[in-house]
Structures are given as C-alpha cells and as structure tokens.
Amino acid sequence: MLTITSRENKLIKHMAKLSQNRRYRYSSGEFVTEGDKLSWEAAQSLGKPLQLLVTQQALNKGGEALEFLMDKMQEQAVLIPEEISEKLTAAQTPQGVFCLWQMPENMPKMQDISKGKYLVLDGLQDPGNVGTIIRSCEAFGLDGVILSASCPDLYSPKVLRSTMGGIFRLPVYVCDNLVQAVLQLREKGFQVYATALSEDSRDITQIEWSDKAAVVIGNEGNGVSREILESCEQPSVIIKMNGNAESLNAGVASAIVAWEMVR
Amino acid sequence: MLTITSRENKLIKHMAKLSQNRRYRYSSGEFVTEGDKLSWEAAQSLGKPLQLLVTQQALNKGGEALEFLMDKMQEQAVLIPEEISEKLTAAQTPQGVFCLWQMPENMPKMQDISKGKYLVLDGLQDPGNVGTIIRSCEAFGLDGVILSASCPDLYSPKVLRSTMGGIFRLPVYVCDNLVQAVLQLREKGFQVYATALSEDSRDITQIEWSDKAAVVIGNEGNGVSREILESCEQPSVIIKMNGNAESLNAGVASAIVAWEMVR
After folding, report:
1. What is the CATH number of the domain that holds B94?
2. Which residues of chain B have a CB within 8 Å of the CB of A206?
3. B139 part of contact set with chain A, CB < 8 Å
4. pLDDT reading at A243 higher than 90
C-alpha cells in the first residue's frame, strides 16, 4: 500500500481542487466521492476508481463497502494521515475515504428520451435540495431528472452526498436551454406541467398521468421562471395545502410530486 | 432608536449564548429568532418581542415584515453594527434582524390530545430535518408533531429557521418518555403505526386513517427504536419504493407519510 504524507502532494492538491471548483472538474473531467458508502455506489456504476485514498482510522473501522473498494484497488490504494483527510473533506466529520473518478463519457441526452416520468428542476439553488430530489426520484422509480444548467453542479460534494448514490443509478439530464428542453418534450407528446399557484391551478392529485409526463419544480425563492411557465401545459399544478404555510421545502414539494406521479 | 456598538454588551452576550446553548435557553426561558420573516411569524403568535436588534443595512432593505416589527417596538428597537450581527448569526449570510422572545408559558401537553393526526419523531438527529418536518406537517394540516426529548431542541436556530415559522402555528409536543406517550395515545383509541420495514409491513397508501392516527418516524440512521416499535400497532407501515434506494431522506419520508394521512 502506498502512502502520501504531504499536503502539498500533487494528487492531494488535485483532489482538493476537484471538490472545490466546478470549472476545474469539467476541464479535467474528473470528480471525487467521499465516504465508503457513496464510493461503493459509484463503483457499482463506474467500475474501478482512478484512486482510492484512505486513513488508518477508516481501515480500522472497516466495513463491507470499504473492503469491496480495497479489493478493487489492492496495493494501489493510498494511505493518508488524518490531516490530509481533513484537507480533502467537504463534510463536518470526514469519513477518511476518498475516491477519484473519471466522469462518465456518455452523459444522458435529452434526445434519447422517448417516454417515462421526469422531474424538471428550474434553477434550484441549494445543492442539498438537488441531491435529495435525485435520491427521492430514484427511490420512487421515476425515469430521470432534468436540470437547468443554473442548478448546482451534480459532481459537487454536497449534491453527490445528498443523492446517497442515487445519482449513479438514475439518468440525470443537464440542459443549457431548459425552455427548449421543455418544448422538445412537448413535441414528443409529453404532458409538461409547471408547479405554480394561479387562480386555476389543478390539484396534483387530480392529474391523470400518462406514460409521458414531466413536472417542473421552480427555484426555492422565486418559483418557476416565466419563460418556462409559458412553455408548459396550462393551467399549472399545485400541491394543495390545508395549513397556513406559504410554501413547502423544495425537496419536500418535489418528493410529493414524484410520489403522485407513480403512486 | 437605541444603539449598541460593543460586542461585550450584556444583551448581545445573552442573545449569542441563547442561540448556542440549549440549557441556557431553558434556564432563562428565552430564545432568539433571526431574520425578518421568521421574527414576523413569531410575532403573529407571541405578540411583541422583548427586544428587536437590527442593522442599518437591514433597515435600508426594509420590507413589510421588518416594518411591522419596527412598528411594534418603536423607539425600543436597537441599532447594531454588522459585526454584532455577525456575532449573533447562526446563518451563513446574516439578515441583520434578531428578536428576543420569552418562551410560551403553556407548552402543548400530551394529555390535551383527544383526536387528530400526528407525526411522532423518535430520536431524529438533524435539526434541519426536524424543522422541515414541522413545516410540512403544518402545511398539510396535521394537528401536531410529537417529539422525543432526544430530538434537537425546538428553539435552536437551525430548527426554528427550517420550520419557516410553522413552529409558531402548529402544536409541538416534547416527551421525556416517548414509549409512555405512544401507549397513552393507544389507550385513547389512536392508531399508532411505526414506519419500519418488516416482512408484513403494510403499504402506507393502503391504510384507512381514522380521525385518531399517529405515525412514528425513526432516527435517520437507525430507524424507529425497538421499544417504540413494540408499543405500536402491528404490523408497521412502509413507503413502497420502486427504485434501488435503501431509504429516503427523513424529511422526505415524513412528508410523504403526512401527505398520505390527509390526502
């Protein structure tokens, strides 16, 4: 087993920068997963990691997920001290396990969608929300999640972590032009609803979902943008609330919508 | 309008400690809300705050919620510099508005529950989850949330913030002995289900909810504790998932359950 002890080591600096910098991730085409479980999930989809870094404390703790990863890497695994784990971590309590990955070459493409049920995220802000939504959609059995490019990056540590691995099992489509993506779906015969409150909004429980359906979730503060709203079916849909709350958490609203689409 | 400029001012130290220390909150019987919206929500339920601290930047930004609070306090409002706002804040970007409150004297009591629909939180860990669950339950029109004392404190800044004010509109019951609370509910004729996976778990969509119903949500990592599980109806209930996810985010699972109870 190899050992790295210097925080100035080239690989350590590379991996730290990958966790912090979206542009650097895409220019190098690599990303980092943290934690044994998330890295295990990544390996199920992506195979063998480029690198596995692990602390003695994590090795002592062991566990099936880490054993599986160590098995894959054998003597290529790299032992790192706690202080490097703390440099690399994006979490409050580092787990001492880091894998380096090549981004998948074939990202899912909108033109490959012919039917199915999708959530569309229009400019969400919070990485935890985006990750949680991907996790929920995968859990409920939706066919994918479509993101505007203005959402947090999929390969940021917070998004990855909050997907709990769902990102490695569910197709996620990132669109530079979300209006165009919505119009493309509608041309293919999709129902595409925006979630928005208007006088004639339809109760989400009253929709008959076809096998070509998508629902747009808007930004946490501002909701669905006007251009998207106008590109969707009219009227919009809402989650009916009995209390006095102004709104739901975006992760919760998305989960309710996804649940209703497959319930 | 009064002005405080010293970080060592007694009131500033008191309010900072209230935000950080659960025991101190309960020994002094006071708590702090941060932000104009949350403080406005608190005022709807609790009346006039003991103190209102505001930065010049927040005053310049203005808004209805802050105007309402300033109106209540008149010349008793206190102007603070940004550096004190940064000392007091529990958020990443301080909003420059802080209110000090007396805790309500009459906390809701389990013995007052005679019917209705409730979520029961058994040892949840994450303050954001607890707050989000209270927000969702209030939004969907449940009658209350019941917490084990091992959950994060209701008056911690993170819980308060993530309730988005729901905590000031929904009865929340905190129980030292959650097993006893569950048994009390059952004696009153409540259905009390635990959410747990077992061979014969019932699909949550198949339950006929009476007007006396409660569902227990377990800890993020370990689920519902054994003693609680044994005190509930048999079998337990589950949220059926089609994907390969091991679990849902606790806030999401709770929202789906609450939604199903009132749908």
Report:
1. 3.30.1330.30
2. none
3. yes
4. no
Question: Distance (Å) from the C-alpha of residue B135 to the closest C-alpha of chain A?
Answer: 7
Q: Is B136 on the interface with A (CB under 8 A)?
A: yes
Name the CA radius of gyration of chain A, rounded: 20
- Looking at the structure, tell me whether residues B79 and B128 fall in a common domain: no
| Better pLDDT: B66 or B244 | B66
B47 shares its domain with B116: no
Residue whose structure tokens are 């337990």: B236
How confident is the model over A110-139, as a mean pLDDT?
97
Domain of residue A227, CATH code: 3.40.1280.10
Let me know whether B125 and B238 are in one domain: yes
B143 and B193 housed in the same domain: yes
Structure confidence at residue B244 (pLDDT): 84
Instruction: Compute the nearest-CA separation of B245 from chain A (Å).
Output: 5
B138 touches chain A (CB under 8 A): yes
The residue assigned the tokens 């569910």 is A170
Number of domains in chain B: 2
Among A45, A76, A102, give the residue marking a domain's end. A102
The answer to whether the CB of B204 falls within 8 A of the CB of B238 is yes
Q: Are residues B129 and B82 in the same domain?
A: no
Q: Are residues B92 and B128 in the same domain?
A: no
User: Across residues B72-83, what is the average pLDDT?
Assistant: 96
* Pairwise CB contact (< 8 Å): A241 & B132: no
**Residue numbers of the domain that contains B121:** 110-262
Same domain, yes or no, for A123 and A235?
yes
Contact A136 B169 (CB under 8 A): no
Angle at CA of residue A227, ends A142 and B132, nearest 5°:
50
Note whether B139 contacts A248, CB cutoff 8 Å: yes
Query: Taking 90 as the threshold, does the pLDDT of residue A92 lie above it?
Result: no
pLDDT at A138: 97
Show which of B83, B102, B121 is a domain's final residue.
B102
Element (H, E) at A24: helix A22-28
pTM of the entire predicted model: 0.94
Query: What are the CA-CA distances from residue A40 to residues A62, A78, A91, A164, B106 (Å)?
Result: 13, 17, 18, 11, 49
In this structure, are B121 and B218 located in the same domain?
A: yes
The distance of A205 to chain B (nearest Cα, Å) reads 8
Q: How close does chain B come to A244, measured CA to CA in Å?
A: 6
CA distances (Å), origin B118, targets A1, A203, B204, B221: 54, 23, 15, 22
pLDDT per position as a tens digit, B118-171: 999 999 999 999 999 999 999 999 999 999 999 999 999 999 999 999 999 999
Does residue A245 have a pLDDT over 90? no
Strands B97-102 and B30-34, bridge-based pairing = antiparallel
Residue A205 is nearest to which of B132, B138, B263, comparing CB atoms? B263
Q: Taking CB atoms and an 8 Å cutoff, what residues of chain A touch B249?
A: 132, 135-136, 162, 164, 251
